[in-house]
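Narrative progress, year one. The postdoctoral researcher (J.K.) led the effort to move from monomer predictions toward full complexes, under supervision of the PI. The following entry was the first complex the group processed end to end, covering 856 residues in total.
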Amino acid sequence: MLLQSHDLTKSFGGLVAVNQLSLKVEKGTILGIIGPNGSGKTTFFNLITGMLPSDSGKVIFNGQEITKLRPHRIARLGVGRTFQIPAPFSKMTVLENVMVSAFLHTSSMKTAKKKAEEVLKKVDLDEKADFQVLNVTLEDRKRLELARALAIEPILLLLDEVMSGLTPVEVKSAINLIKQMHRQGLTIIVVEHVMDVILSLCDRVAVLDYRRKIAEDTPQKIVNHPEVIRAYLGERYRARG
Amino acid sequence: MLIDGLLIGGLIIVVGIGFSLCFGVMHIVDFAVGEWVMLGAYTGFILVRYFGHDPMIYLPLVFLIFCALGWAIYPLIYRAVSGKRHNPVLMGLVFTFGLSILAKGGALSVWGYHIQSITTWLSGKSLALGPLTIPALRFSGFLFGILITLLLMLFLYKTRLGITIRATAQDREMANLLGTDVRKVGALVYSLYAGVTGMSGILIGALFSIHAAMGVKYCTLAFFVVVLAGMGYVPGVIIAGLILGLLQSFVGVYIGGRYNLVALFMVMYGVLLITPKGILRRGI
Amino acid sequence: MPLKNGHTQPHTSASSWRWALLGLALLIAFLLPWPLSPLWIRIATEVIMWAGLAQSWNIIGGYTGYLSFGHGAFFGVGAYMTGIVMLHLGWPFALGILISGIAAALMAVIIGYPTLRLRGAYFAIATWAFGEMIRQIATILEITGGAFGMQLPAYLNLPFFYYLFLLVTGLTYLTTYLLLERSPFGYKLLAIREHEEAAEMVGVDTVIIKIKAFALSAFFPGVLGGIYAYWVTYIHPDSVLGAQLTDFMVVMAFLGGIGSLWGPFLGAVVVQLVNRVLWLVWGEGTFYLVIIGAAICAVVLFIPSGIIGLLQSRIFLPGTAWKEIRKKVKW
């Protein structure tokens, strides 16, 4: 088991955002998390990466408890993430953005630059390496998010709605990209609204509804799960399942 | 001594509430807060000198004057913190920092380093409350503080506009989406804050003294209160203001007034170290 | 320079021009005391000192995005530290300024630790209050001479101080260039300024990096303050801890352009020269505060990228000047 969360809970003021969430992710698999807006998906990511402190519960990564660690320590252990709304370092170039990540493993400018160029090539952004971030498109910013996360050489990658806002063609190439990363041995958690993406990518799917997990299973079974259909999917996907 | 501290606390609360509201709604830390107090005090002083009468009757007038001033300046502040500015919070900080230097320099150039005072009909009188004798002016300052605080609270919690303001403070984006004109709310809050702070200036000036560089002191006090209360958390200001008043009297009596700032800073440092979101942990 | 916003310039010719320009500037700076009268050497010395102070502020305020509104305190602590070391301990001046720098940096660590973990506004408030507190302490303590200040042994040697300030200010710029423009440390600082949470997500230990930056930005004012104390020989709370110190650092950095290597230098030259000319014309006064305040507000409102931002756009090419100015100056 690469990542495990036990009864993870977080509330803001009186509002519970994540309620006793327990999830497991096996090494080398892709877990999808779906759920309506406000069901706690992004909060869950923020809890795992240490961006928010949890109220109770535990997170265990690679056999080590990381619940109380500061974010940069968790990143060093090999957890990379992307932000739902791209959060680039605006006044830097695309290449420099990725170099910041590369400095996690080297303090040489040259090595970091080489590493960043490699990663940019992987996500097909190498031609725009010297662009100012302010001048690139949304799709490229999403790729940049990915590149920045990849450059820390993660073991586990958390993708927060990387497809939202992309055109169908762009989505397709993004799916290929994720599959390719998966083949190279990465374990991935995908939070997504687009159901097709989840179905075509994931080994297992967890469904959140109103802050708690209502189901977790293979994609095939999830689309036929009665409670999931009622809460989230609607009838359309049952036929395909 | 205890009573004394509480009495001074009342006025600081008024200044602190406006300041905290400003931060909560617009994320602006107004470095010019002390200069508003100073300008208010001078306005009162000038009005008394040219038109006579008791300074107390000018309170509403000064309130209106400073509301208008705040309203007039707000577009500039808005400009500084919006648009394509790279780091709005930073720009707002620097802009009000500039404003405070401007106001202080202006006052120094016009009035110099002389220390002035305002006398009211309450000055020198005192009230007997059982075994205690309380200077009437301090007491009225305290009453004024409570009154304004109550009015502000009523406004914030019971009127539609007040609720809109609090909603904006809680989530600006959402308020914007729901059709609140965030800019207008900001202008309103800023002018309200300027008005209330300027008005307190008269009483502060009457209680203590008036000089061009007095702003520094009240800026420190406002900062202290707001950090203690948790930035942007308005109700906390009341408790923090009272604590501040007590602390000041305590330091004044037992350690010596000149250690006031040192003591304030130590407490502030401790609060930031232990519970950065204020003693009630409700700040932002 | 890759860290700059704006356009990618043709590398070779532009950078060799730059080196030539820098060499020329250094040569001029080196020869400057010869033709000048003592008064103007004094003014040139001040300009150089302020250039160093403004750059120090720029390290934390410009590159890291955390505004320190109490930076003058480090200068004052440095000045008093050198005074104490020389007067009360009888140690040499060189040791004094080193101790001054270290003391200032240590204070920055102590102040920065709780406040740099929070949002920038807390940091601004805390540093401001810290500055006020240090000034009050200096007026209370006996070792600092209270409100009357301290008289240091006199060493009347204008060129000595000129070159010493030149050396230390030169070091500030060299450090900024090497550490902030050309090393991982600088990249991480920029990342923190641009998006702190994202920086944490890629493994940047933001707390440590910010504290290091703050300590670095306090070290140089400490040293400069120490030199200043020995130069003017008489220091008191208002002269080395007054609010105007921070005010000037902020306005210089902003006017020149924050977060850039040469912005603070340009800002210091312009502001201090104007300040001195006004002083020569009008004598001592408080009106300069009005001008500084108005200048800060105007820069924030109209040219947030500072003079350097104006220069970096191509205003010198014929025909495009007006257009570029219109683009940079935000109406």
